[in-house]
Specification:
Elements lengths: L3 H23 L5 H9 L8 H11 L5 H17 L7 H4 L4 H4 L6 H14 L6 H11 L18 H10 L9 H14 L8 H15 L3 H10 L2 E2 L2 E2 H9 L3
Helix pairs in contact: 1-10, 3-4, 3-7, 3-9, 8-9, 10-12
């Protein structure tokens, strides 16, 4: 059995390897930090909270984010700017599927939109204040028993995604995040746990403390190092990230 000093050296060595491995991944993601900062400042999609809610609801059904979700949210934005669809949380809570089905046909997504908007509009007359107040006050533990957590179609990933856009520096335990985090930990020789969803979120917080990278950056990094065709997403969508 190693002595306490030996254990500390082993732990320190593992942390150093973890920092090196994470740095090697983040090296492919220049520009991601500013995107994540805008997200935490509730400035995605030009600071439009309705667009953020629509984004989260469309993303919740698991389609490709950049090729399916982003174009649909952009189409909603264009219609919103024309005054053809709701542009506030109060209006979004009452949105009719018939009014928006040409933009996105999935009824489950619109149920998420209506349900989340109905919960958030109770926080404040100001949409941005509503989202940030909710995000800062709603818990991770027992999330499924909160008003937003009880909305049909809202899972932990959607819940966490909304919290991130509301200014909470946290992570999402989706399958891509888990796969990349497992790979990083294996490369670093770390046995931090990743099996459970809350366990994974906690592990990402630990990695954040060790590496100095925010949980939101670690989360987005796992998505952006994926390839589409022969090109890494970060290269393919770097400019787009500045707009959304």
């Amino acid at each position: 059995m190693p002595s306490r000093m030996e254990s500390q050296r082993l732990e320190s060595g593992c942390e150093q390897r973890l920092r090196e491995v994470v740095s090697s991944y983040m090296a492919h993601c220049s520009g991601l930090e500013s995107h994540c900062t805008r997200c935490l400042e509730t400035l995605r999609w030009g600071g439009s909270v309705p667009l953020m809610i629509v984004d989260a609801a469309f993303m919740s059904i698991g389609l490709n984010y950049f090729t399916a979700v982003v174009p649909a949210v952009a189409a909603y934005e264009q219609a919103m700017n024309r005054g053809a669809v709701p542009s506030s949380l109060s209006e979004l809570a009452e949105v009719s599927l018939g009014d928006v089905s040409t933009i996105w046909r999935n009824q489950r997504s619109w149920e998420v939109v209506r349900g989340v908007a109905a919960c958030l509009r109770e926080e404040s007359p100001n949409d941005r204040v509503s989202l940030t107040a909710w995000a800062g006050g709603t818990p991770l533990s027992g999330w499924e028993h909160t008003p937003v957590g009880r909305v049909k179609g809202v899972g932990l990933n959607t819940y966490q995604y909304l919290r991130m856009m509301g200014g909470v520096d946290t992570s999402m335990p989706d399958k891509i995040v888990r796969r990349v985090m497992v790979q990083i930990l294996e490369e670093a020789g770390s046995d931090l746990p990743t099996k459970g969803d809350l366990e994974l979120i906690s592990t990402i917080e630990t990695i954040s403390r060790v590496t100095g990278r925010r949980p939101i950056e670690l989360t987005w990094m796992t998505w952006m190092v994926q390839s589409e065709g022969k090109t890494m997403r970060m290269e393919k969508y770097r400019e787009l990230l500045q707009r959304i």
